[in-house]
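Form 12-C: Joint structure prediction
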Amino acid sequence: MTSGAEPIRPSFARRLATALYRRPRLQLGLLLAPPVGALVIAYLGSLALLLVNAFWRFDAFTGSVVTTPTLDNFSQIVTTSVFRDVAVRTILTAAAVTVTDALVAFPMAYFMARVAPRRTRNVLLVAVVLPLWSGYLVKVYAWRLILLNDGFADSVLAPFGLHGPGLSQISAWIVFSYLWLPYMILPIYAGLERIPGSLLEASGDLGARAVTTFRRVILPLTLPAVVAGSIFTFSLTLGDYVTPRLVAGGTQFIGNVVYDNIGVVGNVPLAAAYATVPILVMLVYLLLARRTGAFESL
Amino acid sequence: MESARGLRVLLGVLTAAVLAFIYLPIVLIVVYAFNINRVPTWPPAGLTLEWFGRAAQSAEVRSALALSLEAAIGATLVALVLGTLAAFAVHRFRFFGRETVSFLVILPIALPGIVTGIALATAFRTFGVQLGLLTIIVGHATFCVVTVYNNALARLRRTARSYEEASMDLGADTWQTFRHVTFPNLRTALLAGGLLAFALSFDEVIVTLLVAGPQQTLPIWIFNNYLRPNQAPVVNVVAVVAIALSVIPVYLASRLSSEATGVPR
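Section 2 - Result
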């Protein structure tokens, strides 16, 4: 480390550098403290507070929160049919969106990974990444304009004697599928690209036809990637209240119920209790996903 | 197995169709922003720049744009610092709970948006924190850390430690090595991660609506105005500006760093 016969006393910065170099644990502590501290306090702390709130009670008469532990909110959620219906509708929509995205994404991901020449592939990758990161609300709003009565969908379908789905639950399914599609394309693309060409050749040499190779080789090897993509499509659908509000025409999803309770009604405990539904669904989903090896494909 | 020619063509056609599906709404909103009609009828009756002028004159729109930029810059800076530190810690050291750090960084973006939103909103309310720019920055930073972290970590993993060791062997101390070897190598990854964080923050509305209080970012302004018929043309213009300001950073990030696309190239 030192250059031996250094005649001048090293600077403070240099001595600090040496001191740190000799104490790796201190280095680690200094590196970790800000990010972990911030996330644990600001994020996990908030989540914990939310969970505590779920066991408190909102007094509608005084408009204040009573901090006596109770399971009232949860029993209200389980026994009220609206809450059950909204939860089931949201989870089924999330599942439908996930299946739709997997089916739509696969051919494109396959084309990108195994058919397209390198240059085309890079262009396509950027074309998929751009809408993944940008313009969420703008895209939802654009879909609203498309789906509105006498909007783009109705105008284009009119010559065929058809009309668009309007603002409805079907629209929510279409728009969710549209929004999260890039989240499905990218992991499947990465999964397909990782399959060595020799495996497909071997399958062909052993007499398998294209369909058999697809079913027995390609599909099992890309399943973790599909599951990785589905984590996003599922979670993003469960946690969205803006898309239903703009395009679902009054159909409520979990996010809407939570948002309305915290915003309009001010019933934070009930909102918190209802928010545990998507949290629980995602925890179960993540545990199941981990068993397929999807986390290595994220 | 070489795919049959017919199958390749079919896949190409499907890809083009999916791509058209992805970009159709975006193209449509751009066309509507120039539509001479106040109501979004198809096809447009004529084209005009009038609505862009209206949007530029609106004080509300201008202050929403300013707030969005301030929040995105603030969140990006916080994310850059926290994400880089976490990436170094995870890359350089083996310690108990190392996997948990990755999990902790990913969690705010992996959990449904409404959960992150109401958790933070509840915490701010409980501790009497005034909702505004600061709470927006805190909210955005929690889920922006992951973009910087992922980009920095991927770059660190691809870089041989031997350069840094050579630098140290030649007498450079930790700071000099960081300034002349580590940082230059990391620079584009940090820039790409920062640009993605900026886009993510600029674009966000689900968490923002819950932590912004009475303040309006650009997406919140759209959310508050999309139902007002006389505002419709201006909303279209703001939408185009909003999407441009988040697409451009993402495009730059994808040019800067292959890690930014999330897939190896």
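Section 3 - Comments
The two ends of chain B are 23 Å apart (CA to CA). Chain B touches chain A through 93 residues (CB under 8 Å).
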